[in-house]
Specification:
Layout: H1 2-10, H2 20-34, H3 47-60, H4 64-70, E1 71-74, E2 77-80, H5 82-91, E3 95-103, E4 112-119, E5 125-127, E6 131-132, H6 133-138, H7 154-157, H8 159-175, H9 177-180, E7 184-185, H10 188-191, H11 203-217
Parallel strand pairs: 2-7
Antiparallel strand pairs: 1-2, 3-4, 4-5, 4-6
Organism: Sellimonas intestinalis
Protein name: Recombinase RecT
Pfam family, one: RecT
């Protein structure tokens, strides 16, 4: 029996980086999964990506398929969907009574929601960031025209869903950072705009400019 347990530990895919054999075993599993038509297209034929998805699933106690369906790449960054964030909160061993609380009048800019949960050990409440339609507009989430000028934002067609998903994403960012494993949450990569750096002026040009302005005053 001891020998059998040693053999199982030797090929334990839940610790793929502990030794070369575990790593190779996980890679073989990922190769098979990458050939399946049931996994999302962006994982098909990519055993390396499947391998990392399996590892993340094992660490979070999730199904690998669930990870593959809810973890995608935006602007070169792995991003959890809002739906996945809500699942993580509800599956968390730390919280209970997870619920989305809507506030304000529907159809107005003040309409919004936040995620509230209760710590299982202490009974204290954890309250996430309140998201409103006004915030969505101010942050530029609400309007997302494509290159043809056509609106593609789901904030306008599915506002209730989008409010809940964004609230869940921010709750995870604050209270469950280990579960999201340092990845971005839905909307973050799109929200981060690269601001072009202003080219610094040549100090000699500044001195020359001041001298010209001073000379013009005394003319």
């Amino acid at each position: 029996m001891d020998e059998l347990m040693k053999q199982e530990m030797k090929y334990d895919v839940s610790a793929p980086f502990s030794n070369g054999e575990n790593f190779n075993n996980l890679y073989k599993m990922a190769q098979r999964i990458s050939k399946s038509q049931l996994v999302p297209q962006n994982y098909q034929g990519k055993p390396e990506d499947c391998m990392l998805a399996i590892d993340m699933a094992n660490r979070n106690g999730m199904s690998p398929v669930m990870v593959m369906q809810n973890l995608y790449v935006v602007k070169g960054k792995p991003v959890w969907s809002g739906q996945a964030c809500m699942s993580m909160i509800k599956a968390s061993k730390e919280f209970k009574n997870v619920r989305v609380v809507y506030v304000g009048e529907e159809g107005t800019d003040e309409w919004g929601c936040y995620v509230k949960a209760t710590y299982k050990e202490t009974g204290e409440e954890a309250v996430g960031t309140k998201i409103t339609i006004k915030m969505a507009k101010d942050e530029g989430w609400y309007s997302k025209p494509d290159k043809y000028g056509k609106e593609t934002s789901k904030w306008q067609t599915m506002p209730q869903q989008m409010l809940a998903y964004r609230a869940a994403a921010l709750f995870c960012r604050i209270y469950l950072p280990n579960e999201i494993m340092g990845c971005c949450v839905e909307g973050e990569p799109e929200d981060i705009e690269t601001v072009p750096k202003k080219e610094a002026e040549n100090p000699f040009d500044i001195v020359e400019k001041v001298s010209e302005e001073t000379e013009a005053i005394f003319k």
